[in-house]
Design a protein that fits this description.
The protein is α/β, with parallel strands linked by helices. Helix content is 51%, strand content 10%. The chain contains 19 helices and six strands. The radius of gyration is 20 Å and the shape is globular.
């Protein structure tokens, strides 16, 4: 049995080498073909796991609070790895990576990002993106409006009616785009989940949220959220950021995968692929996945998976920390959680010495302060 698994892994990576250009060619081309895109999804993904919530949109209202520090530290380019729904798109827009992977244990998350990708393809503007996402046709004057503010977009889509005919037509267009143009094989279960995801945005629109708790933000809240300087930084707040993401998607450089942070295939395969491309991970957005890995006995494998990734002494984690009883020192009182930065190198060094006593100890011990100059933070 072991020899058969070894043969299969060798076969997959041999086929990957044939289908994906060499590292030099890949960097020069700065794009993937649809065939390469779909093959990466198939070959790097692993069987899906389960999660308690749908997570159609982020449940982290604080996720923008690290954007200023990332810019201050001049973190940009390289490879971005993340988890979860649309907050990744805002991070990608500001970090400007050369390639991005969104790795989630739920196949539903992969399907949601394929829906987003197809909408980006169809929508030249931010208002067109929201129009298709909600199945709310645009009035002519709104469609032609130049650089509308995020407040203006919210005002329009709060008042605009959803349209059942648009919902059905858009579903057909999205499915065709994913299957025919992106060459992603969709099972009957996948098609049902795509209808479920897209139907949720149709029904709930700006009120959609990951689950119903008073502290969980709606999509409206996330769009109106700001960074520490009070600036709107969501990817749908800026024509420039939206345009960058649209081009990344059209070059097939934002790749969703099904993968377990504590699993045995996805991260090993991804690490090997990135090394072949001579890529370096600049940011790994882990959200609040780590406590689940500790709970489920997957921590050691998670650490092993991180070590398989190519990173530098500048590479960072973005981490969401939540604790009702013991709020984080960096936590903004407006938010139920804190979003933190930590050097991957620092984490691995301390982990190898078994110096973290708990998840809270790890989150409060080696984080990069958001309110201090970069020179101080960089020394950590």
């Amino acid at each position: 049995m072991g020899s058969r698994r070894t043969f299969f892994k060798v076969f997959v990576f041999s086929l990957l080498a044939l289908l994906i250009p060499s590292s030099t060619e890949a960097k020069k081309a700065d794009k993937l073909t649809a065939r390469e895109f779909s093959f990466l999804i198939e070959s790097l993904s692993e069987p899906e796991g389960t999660f308690n919530f749908d997570n159609f949109v982020s449940n982290e209202s604080s996720f923008q609070q690290v954007l200023g520090k990332l810019k201050e530290l001049k973190i940009e380019g390289g490879t971005y790895i993340g988890v979860g729904p649309e907050q990744n798109l805002t991070y990608i827009a500001h970090l400007r990576p050369s390639i991005a992977f969104i790795v989630d244990i739920r196949r539903q998350n992969l399907l949601e990002h394929l829906i987003f990708k197809a909408i980006f393809d169809f929508a030249e503007t931010r208002q067109e993106f929201l129009s298709i996402l909600f199945s709310k046709p645009l009035k002519a004057e709104t469609a032609k409006e130049q650089s509308p503010s995020i407040e203006r977009l919210i005002e329009y889509f709060e008042a605009a009616p959803s349209d059942q005919a648009s919902l059905q037509a858009n579903l057909m267009r999205l499915r065709k785009k994913i299957e025919k143009e992106y060459r992603v094989k969709l099972s009957a279960s996948d098609l049902e989940r795509i209808r479920y995801i897209y139907g949720a945005f149709y029904r709930e629109n700006l009120d959609i949220r990951s689950f119903r708790r008073p502290y969980i933000p709606t999509l409206r809240d996330l769009l109106l959220e700001t960074d520490l300087k009070g600036e709107h930084r969501h990817f749908l707040a800026s024509d420039e950021d939206y345009g960058f993401l649209r081009e990344m998607h059209r070059r097939h450089l934002i790749i969703p995968l099904v993968g377990d942070f504590g699993g045995f295939h996805a991260f090993a395969a991804l690490g090997r692929y990135l090394k072949e491309r001579r890529e370096t991970v600049s940011v790994f957005y882990v959200s609040n996945v780590e406590p689940y890995l500790l709970r489920d006995g997957k921590w050691d494998q998670y650490v092993s998976n991180i070590r398989r990734l190519p990173f530098s002494n500048k590479s960072l984690f973005i981490r969401a920390y939540f604790d009702y009883l013991y709020p984080h020192p960096e936590q903004d009182p407006r938010h139920a959680m804190a979003t933190l930065l930590q050097r991957i190198e620092t984490f691995l060094k301390c982990e190898s010495q078994s110096c973290y006593l708990s998840y809270r100890d790890m989150a409060t011990r080696d984080y990069i302060p958001l309110y201090e100059p970069a020179a101080v933070s960089a020394s950590q």
